[in-house]
Amino acid sequence: MKAPAICTTLLLGISVMASASAQAELQAVQPPPETTVTVRSAGTGYTPSGPAPAFADLDRNGDASLSKDEASSYKLLANDFLKADSDEDGEISKSEYERWAAQP
Question: N or C: which end of the chain has fewer CB within 10 A?
Fold first, then answer.
């Protein structure tokens, strides 16, 4: 009878130690509330000075869609190409472009 009681006690002790260890690790990862965290992202290095260009101005070959090459002439669109290409067909349609350009 003593063996099961000892095993239960050992398992309970191990469980408590593991829980305390996990909490200590979480506390080590989280910065204190007074810490300032700075997040930097890679931008395009380009600040627009007006509205996005007209779709027709970017669609150099007139096929009613923008390839990656055509999008590269507008750095903001080139940077967001995958986001703007919402149907993931490798091209940006006029409606996809207008939806992308309307986003803040």
Answer: C
